[in-house]
Sequence to fold (325 residues):
Amino acid sequence: MRIQVIGGGSWGLALARLLAVNGHDVRLWCREEDGPEELARTRLSPRYLPGIELPPGVDVGPEIDAEAEIAVFAAPSHALRLVADRFRFSPETIRVNVAKGIENDTLLRMSQVLRQVQGPCPVATLSGPSHAEEVARDLPATVVAASADPAACQTVQAAFMSQTFRVYTSADLIGVELGGSLKNVLAVAAGICDGMGLGDNAKAALITRGLAEMARLGMALGANPLTFAGLSGMGDLIVTCQSRHSRNRALGEAIARGESAEEYLARTVMVAEGVRTARSAHALAQRHGVEMPITREVYRVLFEGGDPRDAVAALMERDAKPEHG
Fold:
């Protein structure tokens, strides 16, 4: 297949490599500041994926393939609208979103942004526990391709599936996108938990109750609650809250040490999607009347100068209630 990948960060590079190894004709576009000429010449990106070489099947260049069968949008969620407005494709091209976030101003999911900007077209989202650093090294990973269009789902599944990258399909686009986005907020909380040395019991409770928050908001927005027990919910939540590759967990640890989110983000080239998503998730919870206490405390720490110690106390001292119901 002819596949266009837009975005030369770690995930865009890892997916471009995967698709080329799968035998597809891949074209990769990346920003000037990411050094496309150097990448095209050396096939290496020490900044994003040290030690990983792009195969010959990846053509790095400034022009896009507007007639590609699949266009993979690998830009961060806050930049997706701008990127989608810049590049146009055939109405038949399947747009695949791989960003995990919710737009701040509109509170739209990424597939909604793509459809709003690109017009009527098939849209899918690829999500799940899949750190780029491991996918690029051909370590086993399993994800979900979600779309309201069954044919698009199956096409994306076939394109990305490999011996080390297993792809399931789902019709629950809302649930898959929300799971991938909201888990980043909870990973910030997990990092704070680790940084404060609160222990394994606290971390397990945080992940479990965080999953309940994700499902509550998802159901309010029309998602299938079972989706959050799957790869794009529980699976991605576990890996993002535990992994040394997790940018959002690292951010939380920095906050626990007394560093601000702004200071941490200023010293890393990677994007921690949980910061912006915390603002959107908090707004969605308020709009729909959904109780999300962990998300609320993360929001307070990030945007209202809240003290992490006070956040822990606020969560532990909430009124007693049944676990379910």
Notes: The mean pLDDT is 94. Residues 173-195 form the longest helix (23 residues).
